[in-house]
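One-letter codes give the sequence; the fold follows as tokens. An example follows:
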Amino acid sequence: MMLNSEHITYFGVFLSAFFMGFSHCIGMCGGIVLAQAHRALPSHLLYNLGRITTYITLGFIASLFSFKINAKASGYMLIILGILLCLFSFCYAFFPRIIAYLEPNIANLKIYHHAFSSILRSNHKLASYALGILNGLLPCGMVYYFLGLSLGTNSLIQGPLIMLCFGIGTAIPMFLLAFGASLIPRKLFFYLGALGMLALGGLNIYKGMSKLHNQTTHTQHHQHMEHNYCDHHPKED
């Protein structure tokens, strides 16, 4: 089966999320994972399932709004998102403190901190799942970017799929962290994640430009057809 741009996008999202997960995500959310490291394997699976559930839900909501965006606006959005991701990858690799500054830590809010603490102390079977759902709502530039991609899909399937790939990609490092991911060379994955984001950003700039080109070609063709129709069907006096 031939790979199209959507398949490449899904694969690119997964790889970028996977590589970034070992550096960015572990740095941002690693404390939550380590706080429940004493729990059994099913708890960690439920935690990551909760995160993925939140991401898929957000992707579906973004997809619903995507139908309000026309092809031309969608093309410009892809170009802007691609440029932002390239800038994000540059800052991610060389100026990581800028990324931290742009991602406010709402976990310090009393209501959020109280919810996290209550769930961590809970022995309920679904406590880890609830923790994952809550964790999925934390501010994150990566989440915002991939939600932006979902917003430009004009599809109820592609948006959730993008967020599913993102969720699985980041879940693997989170899962491994609880079982010794500190042994993995994080610096290597750090730069691989930056390269992955750069490539994905370039792909989306290309997709956006292609959309704009196709839209322009379609408009010109439509105008040409209207012109020919008027030439062959002059108005009667």
The two ends are 58 Å apart (CA to CA). The mean pLDDT is 77. DSSP finds nine helices and no strands in the chain. Residues 186-232 form the longest helix (47 residues).
